[in-house]
Specification:
Blueprint lengths: L17 H17 L8 H10 L12 H12 L4 H25 L4 H12 L2 H8 L3 H22 L3 H14 L5 H15 L8 H23 L3 H10 L12 H8 L5 H13 L7 H17 L10 H16 L4 H23 L9 H6 L1 H4 L4 H13 L6 E4 L2 H14 L5 E2 L3 H4 L10 E4 L3 H7 E2 L2 E5 L14 E5 L1 E2 L3 H8 L4
Parallel strand pairs: 1-2, 1-3
Antiparallel strand pairs: 3-6, 4-7, 5-6
Helix pairs in contact: 1-4, 1-5, 2-3, 2-20, 3-4, 4-5, 4-6, 4-7, 4-15, 5-15, 6-16, 7-8, 8-10, 9-14, 13-14, 13-15, 19-20
Length: 499
């Protein structure tokens, strides 16, 4: 039989199981660090490293936070994947611990807190975003932190958690604007489900004001550059991103982002937040989830955009799971839960981390395309270098996307390559090549596009990787062109691509 809860003096709330929650978070971080050196850079990581060398208050497709982290990590340990990905591992471990703390705020005793944190620890989405440096990693942790702070504010009635939530949200907004949807959805939840007296208190509004002030440099930059983030979002909604999915896939994907066998936990949490009398003060979270689901369905958001709500849903579901373990055949039920956790852990680790040889990772890549995007970048740079050496006249290197440009910037200096140019996202902001006649080496462009802007183009090589992995770059052409049909300054606006 489970031990009775230990209440915090004067609150009636179970005491947070800090030591085991922190230990579980640390274990997740250690697992991620252990797997962080496998395969190679992701295309986004190469992009963040390049953006870190061009620090700004904002970029066309993101805020400054992740490029700043990339620059700091590369300054401390140049070229180290482990150092680059360490912040992500720490953020993922923090997400795990925070999920358990949310369960405590909802009234969950020690076992419920550990169930919630364990479900988060084996969730595919936590391990996938925790393996790579990405804007999604801090975003996931920030959503979980904000929901914990709001749950704490609802329990204690204190104003400080609202202010802290504003700080966390403001920093997250300097990473990516997604958490703004959470703040609006929570506001709708308060208005629709209560407690509505919060709308008359200064602390929630002060927290929102703090977030807005912290976000203001990004807003000012976007306004001054024509709001390119809106174009990026439109491109994602229309399928322009490699990780875009059909709109109908958003809800079914939610069953996979934690684990199919643990989906009953978060689904029970959603239902209980909406219906259970004991959780009535927290019903706003259920309303917020519905609002977010509707908004992301309508706008074509990626399936993982809802992942930040899993912390509070798993926490609420863990309360139900904890009670379920105390009834019926207890050992059988405990065994079923343990099997579900172990099975989820095995599948999630296999999907998220480079545990298989690259040649044997085809099935994994089919389910998690990000793994495939960590393979082959050194080979791409070597292929371009071979064409460059055979092309007289100091050719310009132009790539079709930021991953290719980032790979040439990362591996090119050792191969004698100059910096690459690209019209993709922030690379376009960093300017065109000089207006001088020269040959051009292009990577990943269609023949039709080359005919429109360049002269004398011939395929000189094709991208491949030694592992034979069928990723987005394999088979892409490397063309050698005699020159451009117009000066670069005239071509450059038409080469811009957002998404």
């Amino acid at each position: 039989m489970a031990a009775p809860p230990t209440d915090l003096p004067g609150t009636g709330a179970p005491r947070p199981a800090l030591a085991p929650l922190l230990a579980l978070g640390a274990l997740v971080a250690l697992v991620l660090v252990a797997g962080s050196g496998g395969y190679g850079y992701h295309r986004d990581e190469l992009y963040f490293l390049a953006a870190g060398r061009h620090l700004a208050w904002a970029y066309a497709d993101q805020g400054p936070l992740t490029p700043l982290v990339a620059r700091a990590a590369d300054a401390v340990a140049p070229g180290s994947l482990v150092a680059l990905r360490l912040p992500s591992a720490l953020m993922a471990g923090t997400t795990v611990a925070l999920t358990g703390l949310i369960a405590a705020e909802l009234g969950g005793r020690r076992r419920a807190q550990l169930i919630a944190a364990t479900c988060a620890a084996v969730a595919s989405v936590v391990l996938i975003v925790g393996h790579l440096l990405s804007t999604a990693t801090f975003d996931l942790m920030a959503w979980t932190a904000v929901t914990w702070l709001v749950a704490r504010a609802l329990r204690t009635g204190a104003g400080a958690p609202w202010l802290a939530a504003g700080v966390v949200a403001g920093l997250a907004l300097l990473d990516k604007p997604l958490i703004a949807f959470l703040l609006v959805a929570l506001g709708v939840g308060i208005a629709a489900a209560g407690p509505r007296e919060l709308l008359r208190r200064p602390a929630p509004w002060a927290g929102a004001a703090i977030a807005l002030v912290l976000w203001s440099p990004w807003l000012i930059w976007q306004a001054g550059h024509g709001w390119p983030q809106l174009d990026v979002s439109s491109s994602i909604a229309s399928g322009g991103s490699s990780s875009s999915q059909p709109r109908w896939a958003l809800l079914p994907f939610q069953l996979l982002l934690v684990s199919p066998v643990l989906a009953p936990v978060w689904i029970a949490g959603l239902v209980d937040l909406a219906r259970r009398p004991e959780l009535r003060p927290h019903r706003l979270f259920a309303v917020a989830w519905v609002v977010l689901a509707v908004v992301f369905l309508a706008t074509g958001g990626k399936p993982y955009y809802l992942a930040g709500m899993f912390g509070v849903l798993l926490a609420a579901g863990a309360l139900r799971a904890d009670a379920w373990l105390d009834h019926g055949a207890r050992r059988v039920r405990a065994g079923l839960l343990a099997v579900a956790v172990v099975l989820s852990a095995v599948v999630s680790v296999t999907l998220a981390l480079p545990v298989l040889p690259a040649r044997d990772a085809g099935v994994v890549i089919a389910m998690n395309g990000d793994i495939g995007e960590t393979i082959g970048w050194p080979a791409l740079a070597r292929t371009v270098a071979g064409v460059y050496r055979d092309t007289p006249g100091a050719p310009v290197i132009l790539t079709s996307n930021y991953g290719e440009a980032g790979a040439i910037d990362r591996y090119g200096p050792a191969l004698g390559l100059p910096a690459a140019f690209s019209g993709h996202n922030a690379f376009h902001e960093w300017g065109p090549p000089p207006d001088r006649p020269s040959p051009v080496i292009t990577v990943g462009f269609s023949a039709a596009r080359l005919r429109a802007d360049f002269t004398g183009c011939r395929v000189a090589a094709r991208i491949d990787n030694a592992a034979g992995v069928d990723n987005d770059e394999r088979g892409e052409p490397v063309d050698r062109c005699a020159g451009t049909r117009a000066p670069w300054s005239r071509l450059w606006p038409g080469l811009r691509r957002l998404g």
